[in-house]
Amino acid sequence: MNNLQKLGGLAALYEAIAYIAGMVFFIGVVNYTAADDPIQKVALLVDNQAMLSLINLIIYVLFGIVLVVLSLALHDRLKAGSPAIMQTATAFGLIWAGVVIASGMIYNIGLGVVAELYSTDPAQAATVWLAIDAVFEGIGGGVEVLGGLWTLLVSWAALRTGSFSKALNGLGTVVGLAGIATIVPAFGEIGGIVFGLGQIVWFAWLGIVMLRSQSASVKANVDTLIPQHGTAA
Q1: Lower Cβ count inside 10 Å, N or C end of the chain?
Q2: Cα–Cα distance for residue pair 100/159, rounded to 1 Å
Q3: Cβ count near 35 (within 10 Å)
């Protein structure tokens, strides 16, 4: 259990770092949204294909793989006090992980197809990319319902069991509700911003708490064993 909790804490920290890496890249390195013309967007993507493929591997494919570890670690930690909620939460967490991995693979494979097509027919490449981008956004970029439900349910279970601080669970509740709100077009943009920024803090905070509690557990076991060893001697 201790090893799983340690892996879960490291996984949560990775998720926070992945969010930050994605934001820095798409704002400071390749500002994809700045291009208005579809052909210009595809040209920008093709010029930065290698970097885009790498960053999507980091923030989607690896993010989803690591999310599986975190979901299982949280389930292991919270299931005793709130089994029904954690069963539901873990189901959503694993589904979300699969969807994120799939969206990253669709993006990278689609980017390769479009890059090859762009060399002979830029206009058609732009048309194909519009379709690929719509699928990508629909699966893993535009709506954060799955992530929102998972975060909300985990926070709810933690509140019931008292596993984490009320402040951390309160933040998770707000972040989860913001993610769920992205299903409504009117709240999509603001909900996505709150969800993305909030999850950076939530993941980082959660990772630190899980690692600290694991270290405290190890120390307590050592402190318990030392007197017994001394008495036996």
Answers
A1: C
A2: 27
A3: 15
Q: What sign for the dihedral angle of Cα 222, 223, 228, 233?
A: positive
Token readout for 35 is 């291009």
3-state secondary structure of 22: helix
Which pLDDT belongs to residue 65?
A: 97
Q: For residue 94, which of 121, 73, 119, 120 has the smallest C-alpha distance?
A: 73
Residue the block writes with tokens 């694991």: 214
- Residue for token digits 């960053």? 55
Q: What is the DSSP letter of 119?
A: T
Q: How far apart are CA 208 and CA 76, in angstroms?
A: 17
Residue with tokens 């732009």: 126
How far apart, in whole angstroms, are the C-alpha atoms of residue 62 and residue 58?
5
**Which tens digit of pLDDT belongs to each residue from 144-187?**
999 999 999 999 999 999 989 999 999 999 999 999 999 998 98
